[in-house]
Amino acid sequence: MPFVLVILGRQGSGKGTQAALLAERYGVIHVSTGDMLRAAVAAGTELGLRAKAVMDAGDLVGDDIMIGIVDERLSGDDIQAHGVLLDGFPRTTAQADALAETLEGSGPDLAINLDVPIAEVTQRMLARGRGDDTTEAIDRRLALYEAETAPLLEWFEGRECLAVVNGLGTEEEVFARLTKVIDGL
Ligand code: AP5
Ligand code: MG
Questions:
Q1: Ligand 1 interacting residues, C-beta cut-off 6 A
Q2: In a domain, 59, yes or no
Q3: Max Cα distance, the chain (Å)
Q4: What domain count does the chain have?
């Protein structure tokens, strides 16, 4: 099995920003399910057509679809050779269970929760202004995070692979905290 690192955290906590830096530092492949879905929307594929309305509303794309997409991506030669940094997956217990099955029963090598309070992530998303960064969709995404994704922290804790990193501060400060945890492995 390749090296598997998961980055968790509220919407707007900086997962994508930090994942790009970490992938460069450690030579692992950055897989963002949000980026994959946005690429599908831009390309007008069947998946993109189905996902667009769901994403615009801030809802979650179905587990079956997401598990299928990620499973296929994880089998790629680049990931088998270099390892993977998962950003935006898993987001539900069903997705986490499916990932464990793909990893032959084990959890990832490390899951990092990038911890940023709701008020700060809301400001960051409103300042970013992506298509799904409307007030309504942000509220919906953050509510779904608490209901569906936050329980995963316990899931990872139970597999003794969870680390919590403070995501407040400059990008450089957060990056330094993350590399300290990863280098400690
Ligand atoms: P996704 O693309 O994953 O969006 P998200 O969860 O809303 O998270 P973001 O990408 O908005 O936040 P981020 O943590 O990456 O922060 P970023 O680095 O951009 O998913 C989009 C949609 O796709 C979902 O709503 C869902 O519909 C669907 N989807 C995806 N995966 C799915 C799955 N597994 N199952 C079901 N559905 C799925 O940073 C945010 C902003 O803050 C940026 O402007 C950045 O420049 C800024 N920033 C970053 N770091 C700092 C800092 N230290 N200080 C100040 N500002 C900072
Ligand atoms: Mg992102």
A1: 9, 11-17, 33-34, 37, 54-55, 58-61, 66, 88-89, 91, 95, 124-125, 128, 141, 169-171, 174
A2: no
A3: 43
A4: 1
